[in-house]
């Protein structure tokens, strides 16, 4: 295999290896895919203000998330159906995350169960739920899922709140996407909800439409707190208004996310929304970023704008497809190495030394009119 020098190179290699339906499912965004491109391009408009002549002979990237120590502020986002990418799927991802000393979030639509992932050994793991799937027409189902996650030692619930309906992903419609017949959504297998039927458009969209309760709201976040003592990360917040509500309804943290640009097209990039959320949070809870991270420089930029850490999704899927556990481990190591280098060249020896003064954004370059 050719020498891979950065995270983005895995996508081209994965495209060569994966069936078109699977690659398109992982890679595509909603409708015109404007937000998909913007999630990356917005990072490129943020520039650095490095400090010089700082002793950077020792750099500490360790941090704490929800009371758990991790080796770096780079974690793994929930990504569905990973066995489409590699036979070991989520199990390989879990091993790679544990080896890197960081946290992994398991999708409720995983092709490995919470128990199977836990069986690979110790690790800091969160379990992801869809707010629309919290009832699945039956609240006992979500109670069972949460209890299973608790019993398996998961440390938090990542509640995805931007999916009352599935976004229009035209690649999936063209490909008539469905879960390959040898795979099931393992967390729902015992509930007879683990398979998808073939349809004339997207099998996933049809599956979601048949199972999701569109009437759910913030009050259901409160209900979730009555059935679990696990901290709840609200994933999908992009505005100050929803930041206030997340705090009001007891969130333990916020993940600024637009679902990898797979839901509503023409929303801003998550890095463009980050400061608004951070300002409103006022330090009352940690704010994380998900979407578009491909370089250690991206991680640094997010931290400078107030994020407590970032989550990566597609880089995990593409590296998993190319080289299994070793691929995911290499992605995490490359991002770590790049972040360490960026910190050194910016004059920062610890994460707390990364500040807003280290970056210049579009808003900084807009001249203020005179009064």
From TrEMBL:
The UniProt record lists the FMN hydroxy acid dehydrogenase domain at 1-364
Principal localisation: other
UniProt cross-references to Pfam families, sorted A to Z: FMN_dh
Which prosthetic group or cofactor does it need?
A: FMN
Single biological process term from Gene Ontology: oxidative photosynthetic carbon pathway
The entry marks the following residues as binding glyoxylate, namely 25, 169, 259, 262
Instruction: State the reactions this protein catalyses.
Output: glycolate + O2 = glyoxylate + H2O2
Which principal EC class is assigned to this enzyme?
oxidoreductase
Q: Which UniProt keywords apply?
A: Flavoprotein, FMN, Glycolate pathway, Oxidoreductase, Peroxisome, Photorespiration
Q: What EC identifiers does the entry list? A: 1.1.3.15
Q: Which residues form the active site?
A: 259
GO CC terms in record = peroxisome
Q: Which InterPro entries match?
A: Aldolase_TIM (IPR013785), Alpha-hydoxy_acid_DH_FMN (IPR012133), FMN-dep_DH (IPR000262), FMN_HAD (IPR037396), FMN_hydac_DH_AS (IPR008259)
Q: Which Gene3D superfamilies match?
A: Aldolase class I
Keyword Flavoprotein assigned to the entry: answer is: yes
Q: Where in the cell is it found?
A: Peroxisome
Q: What protein name does the entry list?
A: (S)-2-hydroxy-acid oxidase
What's the source species for this entry?
Eleusine coracana subsp. coracana
* This protein's encoding gene: gb14344
């Amino acid at each position: 295999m050719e020498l891979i020098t950065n995270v983005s190179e895995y996508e081209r290699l994965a495209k060569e290896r994966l069936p078109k339906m699977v690659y398109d499912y992982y890679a595509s965004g909603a409708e015109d895919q404007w937000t998909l491109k913007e999630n990356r391009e917005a990072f490129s408009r943020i520039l650095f203000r490095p400090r010089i002549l700082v002793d950077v002979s020792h750099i500490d990237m360790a941090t704490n998330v929800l009371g758990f120590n991790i080796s770096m502020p780079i974690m793994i986002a929930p990504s569905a159906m990973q066995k489409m990418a590699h036979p070991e799927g989520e199990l390989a991802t879990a091993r790679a995350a544990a080896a890197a000393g960081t946290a992994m979030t398991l999708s409720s639509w995983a092709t490995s169960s919470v128990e199977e992932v836990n069986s690979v050994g110790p690790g800091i793991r969160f379990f992801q739920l869809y707010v629309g799937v919290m009832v699945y027409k039956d609240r006992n189902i979500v109670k069972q899922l949460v209890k299973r996650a608790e019993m398996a030692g998961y440390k938090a619930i990542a509640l995805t709140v931007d999916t009352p309906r599935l976004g229009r992903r035209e690649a999936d419609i063209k490909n008539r996407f469905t879960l390959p017949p040898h795979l099931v959504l393992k967390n729902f297998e015992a509930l007879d909800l683990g398979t998808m039927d073939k349809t004339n458009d997207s099998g996933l969209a049809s599956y979601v439409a048949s199972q999701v309760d569109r009437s759910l709201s913030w009050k259901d976040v409160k209900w979730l707190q009555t059935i679990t003592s696990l901290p709840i990360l609200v994933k999908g917040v992009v505005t100050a208004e929803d930041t206030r509500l997340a705090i009001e309804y007891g969130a333990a943290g916020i993940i600024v996310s637009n679902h990898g640009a797979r839901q509503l097209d023409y929303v801003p990039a998550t890095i463009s929304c980050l400061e608004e959320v951070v300002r409103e949070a006022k330090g009352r809870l940690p704010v994380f970023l998900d979407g578009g991270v491909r370089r250690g420089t991206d991680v640094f930029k997010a931290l400078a704008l107030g994020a407590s850490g970032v989550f990566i999704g597609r880089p995990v899927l593409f590296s998993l497809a190319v080289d299994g556990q070793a691929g995911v481990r290499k992605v995490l190591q490359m991002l770590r190495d790049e972040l360490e280098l960026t910190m050194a060249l910016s004059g920062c020896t610890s994460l707390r030394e990364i500040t807003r003064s280290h970056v210049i954004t579009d808003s900084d370059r807009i001249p203020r009119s005179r009064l």
